[in-house]
Amino acid sequence: MPAQQYDVDAWERRERLVLGVVPYVSLGLATALGLLVDHGSPGRIALQLGLSGAAVAWVTWFAVLHPDRLERPRVAGAYFVVLIGLIGALISVNGMYGFAIITGYMHAFWLGPRWRALAVVVCAALGAAAQLGGIGNIDRGDLLVYLLVFAVNVLLAGGITLFAWRISEESDRRRDVIAELAEANARLEAALEENAGLHAQLLAQAREAGVHDERQRMAGEIHDTIAQGLAGVVTQLQAARQARERDGAWERHLDVAQRMARDSLAEARRSVQALRPQSLEESALPEALAEVAGRWTALHGVPAEVRTTGTVRTMHPEVEGTLLRTAQEALANVAKHAGASRVAVTLSYMGDLITLDVRDDGAGFVPDRVAPTADGGYGLTAMRRRVARVAGTLEIESEPGAGTAISASVPAVPMGDAG
Questions:
Q1: H-state helical runs in 38-66
Q2: What Pfam families does this protein map onto (predicted)?
Q3: Mean pLDDT confidence for 122-136
């Protein structure tokens, strides 16, 4: 429980205890003093005891056993009128019962704000009468004295009562504020629990997305390295068989196939370890492109010219790896589908962008009508995904019989920058 709530609850418990105990103490003390000083008839004594018992029973029934009923204004008003009537009757019998008027002051708290002031005035009037020996002892000669005593009682008791009311109202306000804070805290805890659930859900989705992205990356890497390498190996083995049957120059093709198989194996290992392509480890991007184009030309017998424009700068590994893999995939597509006689690869450093253009004079196609390939849709799709991962764009221009131009534009992120 919050400390503030504990303080308010403790105050309310003490307040209820006082409201419950004071009537018994005050009535008991007044009865004891009244019996000591009053040597009247047995009937007078019986009247005092009867009225005291009635007052005790009245207070016990409402203020102790059923205090919730006093929350209703009409019930509280009736309770207070009867209580003051009993105390007034006791004061009229014996002035010592003026001590019991403190119960009236305190139980005026049950009344609404409009009636509390009137209740204090009535209690002050009865108290002043008791202080002058009882209601029956006041005559015209003592009227001025009574009025002065009454005024003092109103000022003193009224001031103390007003102060107590203010404290009670402040306690009620504090209780309401604490209740509102507790409700807000409960809503906050519920929101935190909901956020924790959402956080766990987002983590699960992020893990799934990470697995999916990693699968896409590995699929693309396998397509760019192992698949292309094995395709080249198959091509060389087929060429070796044909050369053996034709002119016996098959050993050269076997050497090329062996070298390609080794390179593919090395690139596959680097892909699994998410490392940069081997070409970029050993040279800058323009030289790596020239090496890739040279190997492609040697394999397919189609000249591929590489040209670089702008000031060459070392870029982030992810950027350079994306451009190199895009060039490899574009050249692989030319070899598979274009039937070109010439290919031009242009790398352009342009301020905050780097562009890669791969053009061929092959058969061309209609880009919007390209169906997914038999190997799962990699190729153009793989290039788009790869370029998009580094916030780049890929544009394809082609017409049947007019060749194809592929242009990849990526942000020029320098080496060392993470974003």
A1: 42-59
A2: HATPase_c (PF02518), HisKA_3 (PF07730)
A3: 80
Give the model confidence (pLDDT) of 214-249 as tens digits.
Answer: 556 555 555 555 555 666 665 666 665 666 556 556
253, part of any domain: no
Which one of 138, 162, 191 terminates a domain? 138
> What is the number of domains present in the chain?
2
pTM of the complete model: 0.42
The answer to the question of residue 260 being in a domain is no
* Structural domain includes residue 58: yes
Residue type, 201: Q
In a domain, 364, yes or no: yes
List Cα–Cα distances, 341 to 21, 300, 357, 406, in angstroms.
110, 10, 17, 17
Half-sphere exposure in the Cβ direction for 96 (13 Å, CA)? 16
Distance CA 284, CA 282 (A): 7
Final residue of a domain: which of 87, 114, 138?
138
Parent domain of 78? 3-138
Q: What is the DSSP letter of 140?
A: G
CATH number of the structural domain spanning residue 337: 3.30.565.10
Helices 73-93 and 42-59 cross at an angle (nearest 10°) of: 160
pLDDT (0 to 100) of residue 307: 94
Per-residue pLDDT, 243: 62
